Amino acid sequence: MLDIHCHILPGVDDGSSSMDVSLEMAEILYKAGIRRIAASPHYGEGSAGDVPIELATQKRQELNASLVEAGIDIKILPNAEHHLRPSLFDRIDAGAVVPIGGEGKWLLVELPWQSIPNPEEIIFRIQMKGYRVILAHPERYKYIEPPMVERFVERGILMQLELGSFADLYGRRARKRAIRYADKGQCHVMATDLHFPKDAEKWIAKASKYVRKRYGDDGFMKVFSENPTLLTKNADHHDVMPLKR
Fold first, then answer.
1. How does pLDDT run across 186-197, given as a tens digit for each residue?
2. How confident is the model at residue 47 (pLDDT cuts 50, 70, 90)?
3. What residues pair up with 77 in beta bridges, in sequence order?
């Protein structure tokens, strides 16, 4: 299994605060079946941090070495959670972005939490730059409604839902939206978006059980293994089939 949205790098953003915490998170994720993590430090002018690519690379290397030393069989891959701001386009033009897995054109993109005008057109601009977009946690944005998500998908934008949404981690509204999107074939990847280890083992187990029961073991593995792996191989969006009930 491959987790493409996880704030496990130590001491860089609002995720893990230290190497010890990162290793604790890794142990929890290993028990859940995850063997690769495309660590996604915040990148861009958002409130949760703006981690330079060089620093993320250094911390990823340090964490990989510590995982080997600790005997935890997880590999950390390159990635970033790209915060959508006008400055992101300057970084795109400069090639200063981090595709999922470190190669290809798939970018994990996060919208601002406060409403912005024309999010569809802004994301379409990223696609026009030659990149492919997977949108982080659409169920959690209060200004993103189901018809917009449908239009996103029609335009080739993939949806990454939070595993925790299926365990009420982000409230009832996010849970209802996550189930709606998954049921309607608008979920391509699930990820933990893990920031800290507290209670994580409990909610990951609860949410995983629910997803497996509702969508089957094959469905669970599609969104946590098959599809994330396709993104690291730069698959076309038509080849990344959504979850179906």
1. 999 999 999 999
2. confident
3. 38
pLDDT at 234 (0 to 100): 97
245: in domain: no
- Domain ranges, residue 63: 2-239
Six token digits for residue 107:
């970018």
Degrees to nearest 5, angle at CA 33 with 219 and 175? 50
CATH number of the structural domain spanning residue 180: 3.20.20.140
The verdict on residue 29 lying in a domain is: yes
Q: What pLDDT shows up at residue 150?
A: 98
Which string of b and e fits 199-212 if b means at least 16 CB within 10 Å?
A: ebeebbebbbebbe
Helices 86-93, 119-128: axis angle to 10 degrees equals 0
**Residue 97, in any domain of the structure:** yes
Segment (H or E) for 55: helix 53-70
Backbone angles phi, psi at 78, to 5 degrees: -70, 150
Cα-only R_g, the chain: 17
Mean of per-residue pLDDT scores for the chain = 97
DSSP 152: H
* Residue 127 burial class via C-beta count within 10 angstroms: exposed 0-12, middle 13-18, buried 19 and up: middle
- Cα–Cα distance between 198 and 206 in angstroms, integer? 14
Q: Based on the structure, what is the number of domains in the chain?
A: 1
Full-model pTM: 0.98
- 187 within some domain: yes
